[in-house]
Amino acid sequence: MLIFTPQNSLLLIAGLVNLVMSIWVFTRGLKNKINLYFGLLTFFNFLWAIGLIFSNTAINYELNRFSSSVIYPISLMIVISLFYFAVYFPYETFKVSGFYKWLINVLIIFYSIYCIFGYKLFVPSVILFPKVIIHYEPWSYTIFSIIMIVLMLTAIYILYKKYISAEGIFRTQLLLILIATIIGTSAGVYFNLFFMYTYDLTYNHFGPLCTLFINFVVFSFIVMSKDKIKN
Q1: CA trace torsion 188, 192, 198, 203 (10° rounding)
Q2: What is the pLDDT of residues 80-130, one digit of tens each?
Q3: C-alpha distances out from residue 21 to 223, 224, 228, Å
Q4: 5 near 56, Cβ under 8 Å?
Q5: For residue 218, how far is the Cα from the chain centroid?
Q6: How far apart are CA 7 and CA 35, in angstroms?
Q7: Backbone φ and ψ of 126, nearest 5°
Q8: How many Cα atoms occupy the beta-carbon half-sphere of 58 within 13 Å?
Q9: 33 CB-near residues (< 8 Å, 6+ apart)
Q10: Secondary structure string (H, E, C) spanning the chain
């Protein structure tokens, strides 16, 4: 399979745009939690897009298995960054308990070790020709999907609660970010979680493109705004 197919070209564009946004935000200072988690959100979106390019490309059997596995802890980091961003944007309304922070850290460590060092377990086999087909271990994949959906729904719920109580410009911003988040996460779940059960990679670029939509909306508020939100 050629590397620069239309599908991979779109993934590359989405990844590079996310990388530019990430660098731009990081240069504004990492002490601001909103900048920190939005920067991480866009950076992990960049890594996700690059990983999908390798996953889509029949270059090498083991490289394909590895990249098809490692994109999942990366996608977990995207959702966790979104969760923490929702906690802090535009202001912090509650503290995440130490237990939940510990639980999130355990999930990150476990799935990173499992998908990086145990990628042969998570991706038992792949078919490279005539088209790339990836087989995931069904039980661990389903558990991972449930964790991802729970974190996404939690982030959406936090944004919704903030929208209900917000006033003025923050209310408008939260509404637009909430809508973008619902659209982006729904597309990501459908094309990059549920669609994998069909072993079809044809549309896996739609997830990164739709999450890029979320990032554009946020970018317009917290980066291009004249008023910096302090947190």
Answers
A1: 80
A2: 999 999 999 988 888 999 999 999 999 999 999 999 999 999 999 998 888
A3: 9, 11, 16
A4: yes
A5: 14
A6: 30
A7: -135, 155
A8: 12
A9: 84, 88, 92, 231
A10: CCCCCHHHHHHHHHHHHHHHHHHHHHCCCCCCHHHHHHHHHHHHHHHHHHHHHHHHCCCCHHHHHHHHHHHHHHHHHHHHHHHHHHHHCCCCCCCCCHHHHHHHHHHHHHHHHHHHHCHHHHCCEEECCCCCEEECCHHHHHHHHHHHHHHHHHHHHHHHHHHHHCCCHHHHHHHHHHHHHHHHHHHHHHHHCHHHHHCCCCCCCHHHHHHHHHHHHHHHHHCCCCCCCCC
Token pair of 59 as six digits: 């270059």
Dihedral sign of CA atoms 188, 104, 80, 111 in order: negative
- First and final C-alpha spacing in the chain: 47
Per the model's pLDDT, the better-predicted residue between 230 and 205 turns out to be 205
Contact predicate 48/77, CB 8 Å = no
Averaged over 176-193, what is the pLDDT?
89
Distance CA 186, CA 156 (A): 11
What is the identity of the amino acid at 193? Answer: L
Q: What is the structure's pLDDT at 224?
A: 61
Q: Map out the domains of the chain with their CATH numbers.
A: 6-222 (1.20.1070.10)
Q: How far is the C-alpha of 103 from the C-alpha of 44, rounded, in Å?
A: 20
Higher pLDDT: 194 or 15? It is 15
How far apart CA 77 and CA 9 sit, in angstroms, is 23
